[in-house]
Design brief:
There is one protein chain. The protein is an alpha+beta fold. The chain has three domains: 197 residues, CheC-like (Chemotaxis protein chec, 3-Layer(aba) Sandwich), CATH 3.40.1550.10; 41 residues, no CATH class; 64 residues, Surface presentation of antigens (SPOA). Helix content is 43%, strand content 20%. The strands form two sheets. Strands 1, 2, 3, 4, 5, 6 and 7 form a seven-stranded antiparallel β-sheet that branches. The chain starts with 6 loop residues before the first helix and ends with a strand. The relative contact order is 0.10. About 24% of the residues have low confidence.
């Protein structure tokens, strides 16, 4: 189906070549011929599809398990969307998780290339790995917004600056998701710093990225919207075993909490027959009520429908696991910008600082005449402060100084 010959087809072709040789070849294959024949399987193996192809084992997950995994992922990504909004100052919407089983070949054929792989490992509370996949254009938009741009500076290729920025964004997003998981399973969950890599996937060995990518794994696709700039798909990949463990941990954590709370109010149902007996004795007075009031239909319909369910609901409410709400505390050391954005979470993102001595415009003819010794006059006079640019944006002015054998710039004015 993919244009490659199977081993059986290669053997058939080799057999046809031997038969066409006139039939004079002896039954015993010579050593040299045997060597050539031995090389054929090696060539065939090199022509086989890459690791991670083949059939997808759909029996690994049931539909109910897919629904449960999708719900857990949806809750986690809801927290991540809120965090991403604080980073890019744009409305972020991550919705509609679609859970399915996939393999490496399926991801290659159904996702835009190249793309950025972000690998996240759980270090506390859970033991496993998951991978986020973002399109190259989406990464450029998000990182440009994080660094103060308007999201339109997407020309060029992704470099270390963008990979570092998107790693920090994913660190904050998945940290928020880990906090949501902590609430669901009632224990601390933490992650390691994410690692971002730009891949074309075609020439990459999936085992070099993560071992679980060589077989069948869980693929969760989200629709991601960032303002009017991004309307795309975000993918999250889980090992099947870890996805099942995550689902079981969340469900067991919820059910376990209720099971642990049940023994404490257990004596209450033993004392409950007295109210039940009173409730059972209540109907006779209702039958002795004034016939005029019964004819009006006021208490006849209201009292039995309101009273009886309430008496039946009381034991159930006593067995419910009711806990006070817990909220994450705010640290006092985080710097908040005037616009309300939290700048502390991106302090580790490197920015490119450039000092511009001056500029000028020249026609092509003059540029072609450049030679060693040519003097180019700039638009600034001697002694005038130079411009300091951060990521191409003019932020300060300064004067050139010499520090030992290196040039430096002393900032003299911050441009508002």
């Amino acid at each position: 189906m993919d244009g490659m010959l199977s081993q059986d087809e290669i053997n058939a072709l080799l057999a046809g070549m031997d038969n066409s040789g006139g039939g004079d070849a002896p039954a015993d294959v010579p050593a040299d011929a045997g060597g050539d024949a031995a090389e054929a399987p090696a060539e065939a193996a090199a022509a086989t599809p890459p690791v991670g192809g083949g059939a997808i084992d759909e029996s690994l997950l049931t539909d109910a398990e897919k629904d449960a995994i999708g719900e857990v992922a949806n809750i986690s990504m809801g927290s991540s969307a809120t965090t991403l909004y604080s980073l890019v100052n744009q409305k972020v919407n991550i919705t509609t998780p679609q859970v399915e089983l996939a393999n490496w070949e399926n991801v290659i054929n159904n996702y835009e290339r190249p793309c950025v792989f972000i690998q996240i490992k759980y270090t506390v509370g859970l033991d496993g790995t998951n991978i986020l996949i973002l399109k190259e254009h989406d990464v450029m938009v998000i990182t440009d917004l994080m660094m103060g741009g308007d999201g339109t500076n997407t020309d060029g290729e992704i470099g270390e600056l963008q990979l570092s920025a998107i790693s920090e964004a994913m660190n904050q997003m998945m940290g928020a998701a880990a906090t949501s998981l902590s609430t669901m399973i009632n224990q601390k969950v933490d992650i390691s710093p994410p690692q971002a890599t730009l891949l074309d996937m075609i020439n990459d060995d999936p085992s070099d990225i993560a071992e679980f990518l060589t077989g069948t794994f869980v693929k969760i696709s989200f629709k991601m919207q960032v303002g009017e700039l991004v309307d795309s798909t975000l993918m999250q990949l889980y090992p099947v075993d870890f996805a099942k463990t995550l689902k079981d941990t969340v469900i067991t954590g919820d059910e376990g909490g209720g099971a642990q709370a049940a023994p404490e109010p257990a004596p209450a149902p033993a004392a409950a027959p007295a109210p039940d007996a009173g409730a059972a004795a209540a109907p006779p007075p209702m039958q002795q009520m004034d016939p005029n009031m019964m004819a009006q239909g006021m208490p006849q319909m209201g009292m039995p429908q309101m009273g009886m369910p309430m008496m039946q609901m009381a034991p159930q409410m006593m067995n419910m696991n009711i806990q006070p709400a817990q909220f994450q505390t705010f640290s006092g050391g985080t710097t908040i910008m005037a616009g309300g954005e939290n700048i502390g979470i991106i302090k580790d993102v490197p920015l490119e600082v450039t000092v511009e001595l001056g500029r000028t415009a020249k026609p092509i003819s003059d540029i072609l005449d450049f030679a060693p010794g040519t003097i180019i006059e700039l638009d600034k006079v001697a002694g005038e402060p130079v411009d300091v640019l951060v990521n191409g944006k003019f932020v300060a002015k300064g004067e050139v100084v010499v520090i030992e054998e290196s040039f430096g710039v002393r900032v003299t004015e911050i441009v508002q």
